[in-house]
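Worked Example 4.2. Consider the chain below.
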Amino acid sequence: MNLQDADREVLETATRWLAAGRAAWLYTVVRTWGSSPRPLGSLMALRDDGHIVGSVSGGCIEDDLVERLRAQGPPRTRASTLEYGLSADEAHRFGLPCGGTMRLACETLGAHSRLDALLDALREGQLVRRTLDLRSGAVTLVRVQSHAHSHSPTQADAFSFDGERLTTVHGPSWRLLLIGAGQLSEYVATMALPLGYAVTVCDPRESYLDDWRVAGVARVRTMPDDTVLAMRPDARMAVIALTHDPKLDDLALMEALMTPAFYVGAIGSRRNSAARRERLQLFGVTDAALDALRAPVGLYLGGSTPPEIALSIVADLTARRYRVPVDRLADVEAGKAIA
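Applying the procedure from the previous section yields the following structure tokens:
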């Protein structure tokens, strides 16, 4: 299964448990202090026999939740919270270094949880905001406006917890447009899908898309520059040109560099990249815009095969997505020479 959302496996498994007549509970990391092994919004589902899927820690908290279920029985309310790591000893016991503390929201799952409706929306590629009222256990779902019509970089990041309401967003919150449907694009798409990207591959050339083998990727045959304009890149979108054909790559890059896209890259050697830069300057692309172009694309990892180059591209995407300081990438950037 190609997961476009890391939560989907947890939600689908919990739904199957409920359909089989089992009881289940969903735990969400809602607050952390100090060091924490899992980020806010991390999910874990617990079945009535102690089986778990997902993770909220390195394993110690999961073990404790199973022990609580067996020793104390199931939670008595539809929704509640609990904390771990209130003391240094407890923090160490539960794998929370530096005196870290973690708060979890626990909800008893059932028809009121609306997991079926949520999963239906996710299978349609929708971005969905789910809100849990901890006082009543009631759940509301709202489909978030499509990225194609929104330029807000934080819209899909929505996570909030005020002690009474927990809001999380599920679905493909990042977009990736690949120009060219060659083998390298297939490897990049395969790696990007489980990282939460909604991937689109664009190639107007006859037959290139006919043999595309990666499921879960949108395929379009329009001209790349038209595709960029139609998708209206925002700060949560990346555009990567991988055809080696200036007629396709250059026009798409020109349009992409004029948008808030967080990553714009192009395949090619240093020599070819320098020639591309000169061509784009002739078309009026400014030096400031060109400074944002990742060309040669990817981090230098030493490999040269298509899967190795794809890994370098996805690694660079990930670093830029999380805004890793440039100086931390200096060592690998110094030797970059991807052909």
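The chain has a mean pLDDT of 85. The two ends are 32 Å apart (CA to CA). Compare this with Example 4.1 before moving on.
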